[in-house]
Design goal:
single chain, alpha/beta, 5-stranded parallel beta sheet
Length: 185
Amino acid sequence: MNIVVILGSRNPQGQTARAAAALANGAGAEGAIIDRFYLPEMAIERCRQCNADGWGDCRAEGQCVIQDEFADLVGRIRAADAVVFATPVYFSDLSESLRAFLDRLRRIGRHEAGKAGIAGKATVCICVAGGGGGGAPLCAGSFESISRNLGLNLVDTVLVRRQNLEMKLPLLHATGQWLATEALQ
C-alpha cells in the first residue's frame, strides 16, 4: 500500500503538517509506505491558459506543456493506492499552492488520458483552519467540487481548527489506519 500525502503548507512543523503526519503515522502503522510532498517547496507553476480559448494540450491530450514538477507528482499520484491532500485554510479556501496544483490537475482531467489513474483514486482531504476556524467547511466544499470534477473517490474529509487540533490528532491517526486497511476494499 502506497499513499501520497500532498501538503499545501510551507511549515513542516505547523498545524497542517501535524494533522497530515497523524494520518500518515496511522497508515504507516498498518504497513503503508508514505510519500510526502510540500507544494510550496516544489517548482509547480500556475496554469498558463495556453491558447486564446484558455486551453491547450491539457484538453486535447490530457497533459500539461509546462516543464516543472507537476508531471512527476501526477505520476506519483497515479502509482499510489491513495492520496491525501492537506491544506491550511486561507480565506475559507484551499492554500494558493494547492489551488494552483489542483487547477492544473483539473485541466488535464478533462481528457481521458489525463484522468487515467486519477479517477476512482481513494482520497482524503484535511482542511486545517487557524484563526477562528470557521472557514474549514467552505474549504472542504471547494475541495469536494474539485474532487468530483476529477472523479476522485473522496472517502473522507476531516475538518480541523487550531482550537481542536489536539483532539483531532487521534482521529486522524485512526483515519490513516482505516485508509490503509479498509477504505480500499
